[in-house]
Amino acid sequence: MSNILAISASPRRNGNSELALRSFCRAAEENGITVELIRLQELRLEPCRGCELCEADGICVVKDKMQPLYEKVAAVKGLVLATPIYFGSLSAQLKIFMDRFQSWWQAKYRLDKPFVRLEDEKIGYIISTGALQRPDFADNAVAIAKVYFHSINYHYGGSLSLQGLDRKGEINADPAALDKAYDAGKEFVSRYLL
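Request: output the structure for the sequence above.
Response:
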């Protein structure tokens, strides 16, 4: 059976992006898909040091809570990222997570030994929430996610941007937004995982 790793990159527990992610994942779970949700804010993740020691074998030398995440990303069929939009971009938590895959970039491009093969047909998706009604602000996050997915040999499976959500949990008062997230999860599962 297919499975999903859901990454909540909000610094706020039960923030809007996390609640949208949970709605997306509920659709997956209702279709028999196993989902594991990880809250990056609860993990001690160091930023990439740019030391390039990973170019020898594709393994990051920084020892923190990232090591189990590499294994999880390699093992799942679907990877769903959820982030609030801050100043037209990803949260710092998600950027640190992505940057730490520099070791995988080394494995793919320098060593020709990627941890994930394209033929594995793994799929990535990004959900973003933001206060301003500015779709172009979310476009930047999507562009970064596309580069990230390409670098780790995940196929880009789409995005959902929900706007006009500022205060923590405000999405709970917007059933249409939660429905959009649920429907996006349902479509993701039917298109890529079933």
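The mean pLDDT is 96.
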